[in-house]
Design the sequence.
């Protein structure tokens, strides 16, 4: 089987603190009748359930993983942060950063999430599978070395990449982040390094504002190896695919990585409550197909994706399934229940033209 899928039921049991959506409880903020943080286990659980019902699991190498060990975690996070996280976790949970709460045992489940990403990365880097998907939870792309935020407690993809490097499997890598929010954690970890090209496509002005500016290109040895593509609200599939063809694919091809990693958030999807980018499940499938084709062209097909955001419990499963269909070329499909309706709500001709012009202008600046 050419596609690996790494998951663990225990990641669905991760819980945050006392929140009502993104607002801490207290004062006039009332508890919600059902659920708290938008980063709910149900998006992931329903994704996994849909896979079982359609039968696509028969075409995947379904695997678990051990938690990332201390040595792996310390390749990215300082011991002081890990010690404090473990202490608070053992004492019943709490919050060490902005919008990043956790319950008792949060340290262990975050290490497990990083372990799933690490196992998926290793399987791809060593050729055990051609490509892989890690259903990692909690997510990771907002977590800076010593500062969790945005539901992210450990930097899953960076931990996985640095372990693959330490084991001698890869040297140069790309992290492509199409989560709707800027990948500030990944950016900070690699901002001054030339061995990792980081590219973030995100909704301009969304979380974490004001990060993610196009002008932030890296520093020192990493100058030029960080690319932020802030896109206007309502960009839609045409804009994302144009950004891939005009900027992302040429930049990755020129960098010549050993492996491509994707921070795969589904919060750019049409019904997501935390953004307004209007992508359908089909758009995520098409983006995956194009990056998969690029990986086959330049790095032996080595492509790994880690689950990040996405907060529509109904729609995330269809977006995830579309990605797996593209990765595995499975004939087991999950027809998109919203595709037809939202395909008719893509940007009008004027908005689409303005977005294309913006992308072309960014491409010209990168080429100059």
Sequence:
């Amino acid at each position: 089987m050419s596609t690996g899928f790494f998951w663990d039921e225990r990641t669905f049991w991760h819980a945050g603190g006392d929140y009502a959506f993104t607002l801490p409880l207290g004062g006039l903020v009332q508890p919600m009748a059902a659920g708290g943080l938008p980063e709910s286990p149900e998006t992931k659980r329903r994704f996994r359930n849909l896979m079982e019902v359609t039968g696509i699991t028969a075409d995947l190498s379904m695997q678990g993983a051990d938690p990332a060990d201390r040595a792996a975690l310390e390749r990215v996070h300082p011991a002081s942060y890990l010690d404090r996280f473990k202490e608070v976790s053992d004492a019943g949970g709490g919050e060490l950063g902005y919008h990043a709460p956790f319950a008792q045992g949060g340290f262990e489940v975050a290490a497990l999430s990083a372990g799933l990403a690490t196992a998926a990365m290793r399987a791809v880097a060593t050729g055990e599978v051609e490509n892989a998907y890690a259903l990692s939870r909690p997510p990771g792309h907002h977590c800076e070395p010593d500062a969790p935020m945005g539901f992210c407690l450990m930097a899953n993809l960076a931990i996985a990449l640095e372990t693959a490097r330490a084991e001698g499997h890869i040297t140069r890598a790309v992290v492509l982040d199409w989560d709707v929010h800027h990948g500030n954690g990944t950016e900070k970890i690699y901002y001054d390094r030339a061995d990792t090209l980081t590219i973030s496509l995100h909704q301009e002005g969304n979380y974490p504002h004001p990060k993610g500016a196009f002008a932030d290109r890296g520093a020192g040895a990493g100058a030029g190896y960080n690319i932020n593509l802030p896109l206007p609200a309502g960009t839609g599939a045409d804009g994302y695919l144009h950004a891939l063809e005009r900027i992302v694919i040429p930049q990755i091809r020129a960098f010549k990585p050993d492996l491509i990693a994707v921070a795969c958030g589904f919060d750019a999807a049409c019904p997501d409550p935390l953004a307004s980018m209007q992508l359908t499940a089909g758009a995520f499938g098409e983006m995956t197909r194009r990056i998969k084709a690029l990986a086959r062209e330049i790095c032996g097909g080595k492509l790994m994706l880690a689950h990040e955001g996405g907060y529509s419990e109904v729609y995330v499963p269809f977006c995830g399934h579309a990605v797996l269909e593209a990765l595995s070329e499975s004939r087991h499909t999950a027809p998109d229940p919203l595709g037809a309706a939202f395909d008719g709500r893509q940007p009008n001709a004027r908005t689409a033209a303005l977005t294309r012009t913006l992308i072309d202008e960014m491409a010209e600046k990168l080429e100059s």
Notes: Residues 3-13+39-367 form a domain with the Arginase; Chain A fold (CATH 3.40.800.20). The CA atoms of residues 9 and 286 lie 28 Å apart.
